[in-house]
Write a structure and sequence with these properties.
- It is a single chain.
- By secondary structure, this protein is mostly helical.
- It folds into 2 domains: 7-73; 75-180.
- 73% of the residues lie in helices and 0% in strands.
- Helix 1 runs antiparallel to helix 2 (59-73) and helix 2 runs parallel beside helix 7.
Length: 180
């Protein structure tokens, strides 16, 4: 019986594959956990408010924080997978004229470049919030942490969309057709 050993390049490939799988799963787990906590907190808040006239005072702060985590944590993953909602009114035209690849490249590059401005702007606002010492009303958490998170994830999404657009231009066979 002969056993074959994988060389160093095979282990590097599996390491990259493992990292990519983790990079996709971690934001989804984070968003799922945030949604679950939001759901349980809302249920408890309604019961406590209705039955005991004692609402959860941090519910508003927690809702804002958890919504930011839910929405922005999965934004790069959804963008990388081409999972955004789109209207396909002109898909027939683009497919007939063999322009779908160019449309997808332009759309991804345009959106990626456009997202640079909100990422920078949110970072500037987060820094302003940090300099003012703004905190959440009940939790006391500094608001700039939320701003930094949103700015960082928006910047990552921008990079993902630019790479995706360049993929459509230079490596179209690697890109899967989003509506096929």
């Amino acid at each position: 019986m002969v056993r074959l050993r994988a060389g160093p390049s095979a282990s590097k490939g599996s390491l990259v594959s493992h990292f990519l799988k983790l990079a996709v799963r971690l934001p989804a787990v984070l968003a799922s956990l945030a949604l679950f906590v939001l759901m349980v907190m809302t249920f408890c808040d309604v019961v406590l408010r209705s039955v005991f006239n004692a609402p959860i005072e941090v519910a508003a702060d927690m809702t804002r924080l958890l919504m930011a985590i839910m929405v922005f944590s999965v934004l790069p993953v959804v963008s990388a997978q081409g999972g955004h909602i789109s209207v396909d009114l002109l898909d027939g035209f683009f497919k007939r004229n063999h322009l779908a690849r160019w449309r997808d490249a332009f759309t991804n590059l345009f959106c990626g470049v456009i997202l640079i401005w909100p990422a920078i702007r949110v970072f500037v606002l987060a820094e302003r919030s940090r300099s003012y010492g703004d905190v959440m009303e009940y939790l006391g958490v500094s608001l700039h942490y939320v701003g930094w998170f949103i700015a960082a994830v928006t910047a990552v999404t921008s990079v993902v969309l630019i790479v995706r657009g360049l993929g459509y231009l230079f490596a179209p066979k690697l890109m899967s057709a989003p509506h096929a």
